[in-house]
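pls ignore typos typing on phone
calcium ion + seq
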Amino acid sequence: MGGVLSGHGMGIVVSTNDGEHVSINWFRNATGKFHQSVEMNRIIRPVVIFGCVVIPMATLFAKVSILEVPPPPKLVNPSFEDPGDATDRAAGWGRWGDWFNREEGWTPVHSGHCILGYHHWQIQTPNASAVYQDVTGAVKGTPYTFGVYLSVDKAKEPTKDAQTVEMRLESTVDGRQTVVASALYQVANLPADAWQKLMVSGTPTNDTLRVLIIVTPSPVNGTRGGALRFDDAFLDLAPATPSPLPSPSATQ
Ligand SMILES: [Ca+2]
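k done
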């Protein structure tokens, strides 16, 4: 079969020399979800496309939705460049606790000229501080990865560094915030100064998704030092979690 591949709007068409064709189309529905469809124009012989789609000999005229891939929502102000209702607040991001500020003068930055700076040396209590964003457009059942770049300005003595950075996903269930996924990074295990990616992946319980960065300081008052620099948060589609293999006892 001598097939040709040609552009066809949002899809592609694979044609044979006999005028038969299979078209694969992607389109967005009213809710913004992407769908993929496959259409075949008439009776066709077995066809292999990209080595993986086999269409058996049969009379076919079908339009079958075989895949749905919603695009990931976009975070608001992911590089923290835009100020909120004060210059030390980043537009689109909420916060609680002390000294987790948008900074226009700190260096280095990962991109732009602003970062979020956690002033560990100025923290007076062992309470955590956090920034968070409620994501618009998350879809139940879709796995996401939330991440941010971090550069650690270490204290002179390791015992004075902040304890942990938690990357967390939450959904709102019955009016309450519910943890969907959490990844805990020990500051002591992170290298100094180099930008590194912190990430967490999970699937929201419903169509609500909150992404959070939570810092827990050193528990010892009066001895805290160092700082944390955050920049360029991101939200991507995560690979689906593979189904766990059945345990030996379940197969016997
Ligand atoms: Ca930035």
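DSSP finds no helices and 17 strands in the chain. The first strand starts at residue 4 and ends at 8. more later
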